[in-house]
Prior knowledge:
The structure holds two protein chains of two kinds. Chain A has helices spanning 40-47, 69-75, 91-102, 109-119, 135-147, 165-178, 191-197, 215-222, 239-245, 276-285, 300-308; strands at 2-11, 14-24, 29-33, 55-60, 63-64, 76-79, 153-157, 183-188, 200-205, 208-213, 226-233, 251-255, 262-269, 290-296.
Amino acid sequence: MIRxxxxxxxxxxxxxxxxxxxxxxxxxxxxxLGPNAAGKTTTMRIITxxxxxTSGTVEVDDLNIxxxxxxxxxxxxxxxxxxxxxxxxxxxxYLEFIMGLRGVGKDNFSQxxxxxxxxxxxxxxxxxxxGELSKGFRQRVGLAQAMIHNPEILILxxxxxxxxxxxxxxxxxxIKQLGREKTVILSTHILPEVEATCGRVLIIHExxxxxxxxxxxxxxxxxxxxxxxxELKKTVENIESKLKMLEQVEKVEKVATPxxxxxxxxxxxxxxxxxxxxxxxxxxxxxxxxxxxRREQASLEQIFRLLTRS
Amino acid sequence: xxxxxxxxxxxxxxxxxxxxxAYIVITIFLLISGxxxxxxxxxxNQADFQGLFSVxxxxxxxxxxxxxxxxISEEKRSGTMEILVTLPVKDWEVVxxxxxxxxxxxxxxxxxxxxxxxxxxxxxxxxxxxxxxxYLGLIMVGATYLSVGIFTSSLTKNQVxxxxxxxxxxxxxxxxxxxxxxxxxFLAGFLEYLSVEYHFSNIARGVIDSRDIxxxxxVISFFILLAxxxxxxxxxx
Lengths: 310, 237
């Protein structure tokens, strides 16, 4: 359980984090979503006790970051942005170094080391210097470093940056799997990532939380209008103006289609109005051939753009 | 209690000896000190190791900052600091471990000159008191300079800045007893007491006085404490 209360962080004049409050329950996977410099990294750095807030506090279980920093740091596994590692060390040396400082006991030292190497897919590079590894492998070493002591809480700053699509899927599955028993906070500005991994999303913009909820909740909350996509086979008639004449249609927007033989339109109506049946009948009346018709859902991307446009 | 410091120390030592740093430092130190040592021996035709002991504190002014400049500034520059200080370790454990590794490296370099001094023993009787005192003094001087070095390294993410800053501070400590003639009596005594060389010359004569040892230990503790404070300064609001 992480409780963030009225957190504010100023860098001189700049307010990086502005009076943020939220809670993360055990077992939740929470995604911080926001444009660059929105305050995601700063919030994470405060939770991990890297830097103190200007005001406000963070509690982890019943410990707080000012009085129990050492205990909190023991409970957290942290992957900073860009996985900063010692390039001159090899993977095993580095993991052993972290394990020593994390206080991993002698009796399960080698077992734990083996497990984490398997879990993060590092078996093929154990004796390579970290500086020689590709960005994807370095990111995995960073993840291994964060998870090596089996922490209750994982804080990952842009964990999938620099990975190829296959690795991204692997890491996402890994995070999901870990999220069953652990609390995970991850930050990203990649939207599908949040939809794929997070049970809950916090959209942060200019140091403030502008949205908080499951991806589904956010989507339903932001659907102002119903939107239908309609694709028709090309005819000579002026389809756009005819569509506009239809009752309850608020707006018709032409969309470019891949083929010159087809015409695409976005048709908007008020919330709760389902035009699909009408559109079908109308098309039949006019002898138009419908190739495709679907209801558009407000995507997280649209919500994100709506909320974070400055 | 010192377990974490020891882990840091081992890592830094590996990093010194896995890179050219340690070998370059040791080789150049041995070359320069060897030149001064054998100069005395062959040109002045004197079998004595005072040549070595009088020049070593001067050489350390360059070597100690070179050894210590990367200790903390490099972690700041590369961002590894962020993982380091979010581990459940105390700031003083980090500083102490890193300091110790630099001290070990410098001590290895110093003790390797034993090959020079011990060669002399084939030529006659060694003044063992002066030899032991001289080596103890050298390590104390080196330890003092390194404590300055780790402090300046904690101030910046730029190694060159760390080097120059610590060189300046060390230079002042080195020069203090050479400028005392310009100062009135009461101040002169005070400045002389603060000077690194003054205490070194006492010890190198073979007189191991607690006042000199206390001087070195207090300067070392002072700068190490400053380094810890400087590391903690990120927590100041």
